[in-house]
Amino acid sequence: MHLEITNLNKIFPGKRGDIFALKDINLHIETGEFVCAVGASGSGKSTLLRLIAGLDTVTTGSIKVDGIEVRGPGADRGMVFQHYSLFPWMTVQQNVEFGLKLQGCSEKEQFETASYYLDVVGLVNFAQAFPRELSGGMKQRVAITRSLACHPNVLLMDEPFGALDIQTKERMHEYLIDIWQRLQCSILMITHDVDEAVFLAQRIYVLSARPGTVQREISINLPGDRTYKIKRQPEFLAYSDEISSLLRGSTEEDV
Length: 255
Known about the structure:
Radius of gyration: 18 Å
Distance between the termini: 39 Å
Order of helices and strands: EEEHEEEHHHEHEHEEH
Number of helices: 7
Largest sheet: 6 strands, mixed
Strand order of the largest sheet: 6-7-8-3-9-10
């Protein structure tokens, strides 16, 4: 898998003139990589993810997955939103099977694939539960499972843990690292949480605010087997301080 964004610009027309949401964005993601884009409010993070998902169109520039131009939503890109977007009238199993059903998979394949991924995320015992019976972290695991079950080339995550309390969020970080390592999937996640990005990512793109541009690309050289204890290490704190300083400088210029 190769995701390539080249010279991307996104402009929204406004009553007082055009608004540059994203300007000259260049980034890439390779097979099996976990990449984060981090930025403050106004940096165009969600806009960028919507463009990659094909939910909006670029003004100029290009987005390609394996050399093919993105011109709309596609099964090659899975999307996980901050709010779980589960069907409340469906069981966990049915929610995960839904995308497979749309892809035309047989009932047997739907069941076996959904069951496999529910086992991966530790929810196989809740397959017949309804979303109202689940905690916030469990609901988000179902949402992630639903996207992974459709075998996307890249999983796009729009601040998926933003609504969770800090303890649940930290557990979800470790779950996500484990899922990523076991499945060797490619992930692009956007967040405003610097520590979250440093903990999860192999590479981080730091976005400036208004318009969103790539200030810096930072490789995170931390052990692959990460637990919450790594957040106390000097290397982790150094990355966090560097990125926070970049973001602080960006937002101060915009004030």
